[in-house]
Amino acid sequence: MFDRTRVLAMLGALGLVATVISGCADSNPKGGSQIPSPDGPFVVGVAEVPLAHTIAYFPAVAGTGAGHRPYLGPETANILGVAPHLFDTIKSSSTIDATPLPTTSPRPVVILTPGFASPIELSTSLAEQLASHGYIVIAAQNDLAAEKAFGESDTFDEKFHRPRTEQLTRLLDLLDNPALPGLVGTIDQSRIAVGGHSYAGWIAFDTSLIDTRITAVFNLDGLGGQNQARTTVPALAIASHDGAALDPKLLARSPKLVAVALLDAAHYDLTDAPSIAKTLGDAASPLDRGTIGPIATSNTSTVVLRFLDSTLTTNPRLPASTELIKGLPSMTADLGCFGLVRSSACGVRRHLRDWLPWAVAGLALLALAVWRIRRHRSITAGPGTR
Questions:
Q1: Where are the domains of the chain?
Q2: 320 — phi, psi (to 5°)?
Q3: CA–CA dist 377, 373 (Å, integer)
Q4: Which one is predicted more confidently, 385 or 184?
Q5: For the ranges 20-34, 45-59, 74-88, 192-206, which has the lowest average pLDDT?
Q6: Kind and range of the H or E element at 191?
Q7: Residue 14 pLDDT level (bands cut at 50, 70, 90)
Q8: Alpha carbons 325 and 2: distance in angstroms, whole number
């Protein structure tokens, strides 16, 4: 059974994304901000699979299929009470019903689920990035209507946690469906990762403890817990700067877990939210975001990809946290710099990082001003004056 108070606090702190998106009906979308385009060598195809609310992204044959999938589909939009056309300017890169790209070896698969009361579309850029690098991604929607209607009287374990765990088990069963390879390509049953944003990361870790088909898990700013320490498969946690997923004391007892964080980020920065905020305009303001900006979306996808490239291989290994964030701005592997118990030393280092360039510039300007004043006095005083 789960700590109900902790769960309610988590959900209240996040703010349900359904409420935010519903507010778009009265807003005036701005600009044309887009989710990051995938940078892998493969064209990305997308198709509905024979399971309700399930979509697959996969490497596809260039020139096949027709059109691009809308960012937010009509069914999801209707549940959220928002007109689908409000998201028309947000373009995905995946092609509808494209032909899976033939391969001489089965491809690893990633099962991706969304945060609580959040649409899976908020992880579109992650799904497309992974597929463009050779992964088959099964992206499933939760019971959005039920989670949107979450109330204080609900028994969380029975109404939400158990159905989410059962959904993930059904998705793992789906991989045995003989019709699936014809839609997405051949799947390697020995290389299966599971994860997602927020609550989905929690579910992934829980399920990995009881289902041996899972070979890697990842948690994107979900609540941490004892299951992170107990995991027996390679695991990744990415947190926002104040994220609860990364407790340094817990991480010290988690030999299978590698953890990093986004500095200056908040909970929804680990989704497409910072990349589409400009398009949504004022309606995006309740989505919990920091000051990191759209780079958070691409950083998250890059770290997940690097983790999977190391763990879903024929010779799997757990990558070092510094390896995962190499070359990425606004990320840290310093356990003292994130979570709920940030160290004072980290605070000093961050202040130095933030203010040192300004301090140096200020001292340089002061030195220049002093030099100019002295020079001016020397000129105006005339020769021979002491």
A1: 4-342, 344-386
A2: -75, 150
A3: 6
A4: 184
A5: 20-34
A6: strand 187-197
A7: very low
A8: 33
**What does the alpha-carbon distance between residue 164 and residue 200 come to, in Å, rounded to a whole number?**
8
Q: What is the dihedral of CA 338, 342, 348, 350, to 10 degrees?
A: 10
Q: pLDDT tens for residues 77-110?
A: 677 666 667 777 888 899 998 999 999 999 999 9
Q: Comparing C-alpha atoms, which of 173, 200, 202 is closest to residue 189?
A: 173
Please state the separation of Cα 204 from the chain's center in Å. 14
Max mean pLDDT among 71-80, 257-266, 329-338, 343-352 falls in 257-266
Written as six digits, the tokens of 90 are 């947000």
CATH classification (class only), 4-342 = alpha beta
CB of 132 closer than 8 Å to CB of 159: no
Q: Is 336 exposed, middle or buried (0-12, 13-18, 19+ CB in 10 A)?
A: middle
| Residues in Cβ contact with 269 at an 8 Å cutoff, skipping those fewer than 6 apart | 240, 262, 289, 290, 292, 296, 297, 300
In angstroms, the first-to-last Cα distance of the chain is 85
* DSSP alpha helix (H) spans, 220-287: 226-230, 248-251, 273-280
